[in-house]
Specification:
alpha/beta, 549 residues, 19 helices, globular, 3 domains, seven-stranded mixed beta sheet, 16 strands, 2-enoyl-CoA Hydratase, Chain A, domain 1, 42% helix
Length: 549
């Protein structure tokens, strides 16, 4: 393969402006993440008095020192569900992939420092996404649990938002815990505090349970509800304390003395699982660094999303030795397909330098089938206004060929990893394997824009519809209508600009998180390896899951 020759002028004013925009946006994301930490820190004094570690301190104790940790969906719920200042976002759980006792695992830490770790719609969606990843990767799940149970107001929304649909989604969490166990995917939970009603089942459906003396309390109904319902009186420890569940009910397997001891026990449990599956993998080639500095990824995407740019410049900064073996370069050239190695792994790449034409869709579908045949993972790099429209495109079979591409993307069997780099509009978003078509992982750059279409385009469409309606009635457009449409266009364009930008879409879990462009190569490699290891996890399925008989 030949290396890509970059044409980026890193000394130009445009490049400097692009870098400044991207740098400012990354800083904004870090500021939002910092706000979440401030929300947790407000609880420090109370946690210290209770002898507890803060949630992220628990996470630090759990993870192997110096090993990578990829947090997923950190800003879900930002400025939603009652989050007014960014300090209560995150769905009240911290989720990611890291290493514990030398094994790659999925981690979920309940953030009891935010609203008591109560469950809202964002919490449930984030939990369900973690389980999706567990099914695909077969990674063990380690949970550090402490939750106040369901937030019946949905975390700030209408009271029925969580109580109805969210209640059923919560049941899916428990159903899938049972399925994970039966599929041989271990779930290890340290119950650090309260676990009432549904929260108690989240703990009890785990394969291994660690309880903490004088902290863990598991029951279907706490003392106040018990008294109200039956008249029976009992204190927390007698009704559902750690010692009772370890010595009498048999609900817990291990009894810890404090937070740190409970996490130590969890690490020891993980150490009894089969060794890390990565030992079975060997790179397809020796990894090689790209020829170009990853810092240059900050200056490729223009500040004006209407200005075209060459996505091969992105490929050149993530591919080993910047080498790219392009597939059908002279056919459907707006769509770019080809082979690379990334950190030594064979990968296909599909990206866009414009709309997806009928020829581009045909080329992509064929390339996907070839890579499926050779078991080659696929990386999708979004930068498209969608499928090309017009008489020529329609007569050329745009709908037919676009459907072929979507069929090929959806039924592609090797791992699919999606990075939304720039525009991702309309059905082109689906065809490029957005979250709708279930990639293994999906992340966005700060420059990502996801919507049914651009704001200006949407406004123009509605104006044309209004004009055509008047013409059909034989009426002329008056000044008042013209002024109304102009005002409407402005509002639509501004509204869609806000609702399509990266922070807004990531807060609504339209991806697995926002990443710094400079981390793209490492994030793809980490996620790819997590998926490639799946067949080698070595744990075995059974019929009903592990039960406490």
């Amino acid at each position: 393969m030949n290396p890509i020759v970059s044409k980026i002028d890193t000394g130009s004013e445009d490049y400097a402006a692009n870098v400044a925009f991207m740098t400012d946006y990354v800083a904004r994301i870090r500021e939002i993440e910092g706000q979440l930490r401030k929300g947790e820190e407000r609880y420090r004094e109370r946690a210290t008095k209770k002898g507890k570690l803060l949630p992220r301190e628990r996470l630090t104790h759990l993870l192997d020192r110096g090993a990578p940790f990829l947090e997923l969906s950190p800003i879900v719920g930002y400025k939603m569900l009652g989050d007014e200042d960014g300090t209560t976002a995150g769905g009240n759980i911290i989720v990611g992939i890291g290493y514990v006792s030398g094994r790659r695992v999925l981690v979920m830490v309940w953030n009891y420092a935010i609203k008591g770790g109560t469950i809202n719609a964002a919490t449930t969606r984030k939990n369900l996404r973690l389980q999706e990843i567990a099914f695909e990767t077969r990674l063990p799940v380690v949970c550090l649990s402490e939750s106040g149970g369901g937030n019946l107001a949905g975390g700030g929304g209408k009271p029925d938002d969580f109580a109805a649909h969210g209640f059923i989604d919560g049941g899916r969490v428990y159903a899938q815990q049972a399925e994970l166990s039966a599929k041989g995917i271990p779930q290890i939970t340290v119950s650090h505090g309260n676990a009432t009603a549904g929260g108690a089942y989240q703990v009890a459906l785990s394969d291994y349970i660690v309880l903490v003396r004088n902290q863990s309390h598991l029951f279907l109904a706490g003392p106040p509800l018990l008294k109200a319902a039956t008249g029976e009186e009992a204190d927390h420890e007698v009704l559902g304390g750690a010692e009772m569940h370890a010595e009498i009910s048999g609900t817990g397997e291990y009894l810890a003395e404090n937070d740190a001891d409970g996490i130590r026990i969890a690490r020891e449990i993980v150490d009894q699982l089969p060794p890390d599956a990565g030992r079975y993998l060997s790179h397809d080639k020796e990894p090689r660094e790209p020829l170009y500095d990853k810092q240059e990824l900050m200056g490729i995407v223009p500040t004006d999303k209407r200005i075209p740019y060459d996505m091969k410049e992105v490929i050149a900064r993530i591919a080993d030795a910047s080498e790219f073996f392009e597939f059908k370069p002279d056919f459907g050239s707006y769509t770019v397909c080809g082979h690379i190695h990334l950190e030594g792994w064979r990968c296909g790449v599909i990206t866009n330098n414009g709309p997806i034409t009928p020829d581009g869709a045909i080329k992509s579908a064929q390339f996907l089938q070839l890579c499926d045949q050779s078991n080659t993972p696929m990386i999708f790099l979004h930068n498209t206004t969608g499928f090309l429209v017009g008489v020529e495109a329609e007569q050329g079979g745009q709908v037919k060929h676009g459907s072929k591409m979507i069929q090929a993307v959806m039924n592609f069997r090797p791992p699919k990893i999606t990075i939304v780099v720039g525009n991702s509009y309309g059905a082109g978003n689906y065809a490029m394997c957005s979250k709708s078509l279930r990639p293994a992982f999906s992340f966005s750059w700060p420059t990502a824009r996801t919507a049914v279409m651009g704001g200006a385009q949407a406004a123009k469409v509605l104006n044309i519809v209004a004009e055509d309606r008047l013409k059909s009635k034989g009426q002329e457009m008056d000044d008042a209508t013209r002024d109304f449409l102009a005002d409407q266009s402005k509002r639509i364009e501004e509204g869609m600009e806000v609702s399509s930008e990266a922070i807004y879409t990531s807060a609504r879990m339209m991806d697995d998180g926002l990443i710094d462009p400079r981390d793209t190569r490492q994030v793809i490699a980490f996620c790819l390896e997590s998926h490639l290891e799946a067949p080698y996890r070595d744990t075995q399925p059974n019929t009903f899951g592990v039960q406490r008989l």
